[in-house]
Specification:
The protein is an alpha+beta fold. It contains 5 helices and 4 strands; from the N terminus they run αααααββββ. The radius of gyration is 21 Å and the shape is globular.
Length: about 130
């Protein structure tokens, strides 16, 4: 009876080791909704910092693409940074849920003062709102 248990125990231990390796290698893990939203919001903040307005729009839902052209985003950002100074870094990231929407708030340090880049997502993790707040 003990000889049958040992191979099963060894196989189980091997399975755990392979599973852990696959997760570390990124082979079997799927990002959570929160991870996706945080990455998108980080990409938007980085795109603003680089003044890459096409990249800001990359994950927009169709309604946002129709409403905010690269030119409108550029004009808004340039007006915003005249008040707060150039982007320095992200200080904190928080996620809140309001009604059916997930919102990522990135509190950022600018040259003159801190401000928030707020990104609102629909259930498909597409951007449906983008706000720059003092």
């Amino acid at each position: 009876m003990q000889t049958a248990i040992k191979p099963i125990a060894i196989l189980f231990i091997m399975f755990l080791g392979i599973s852990a390796f696959a997760q570390q290698a990124g082979g079997t893990t799927t990002p959570t909704g929160t991870e996706i939203r945080e990455k998108v919001a980080t990409n938007i903040a980085n795109a603003f910092a680089k003044k890459d307005y096409a990249a800001v729009r990359k994950d927009f839902a169709k309604i946002m693409l129709d409403a905010l052209s690269e030119e409108k985003i550029k004009n808004t950002w340039e007006g915003f940074i005249t008040k707060v100074g150039e982007f320095q870094k992200v200080l904190t990231t928080t996620e809140v849920k309001e009604k059916d929407y997930n919102i990522i708030k990135k509190r950022c340090q600018f040259a003159s003062e801190n401000a928030t880049i707020q990104v609102t997502f629909n259930e498909e993790n597409q951007v449906i709102g983008l706000y720059l707040k003092l």
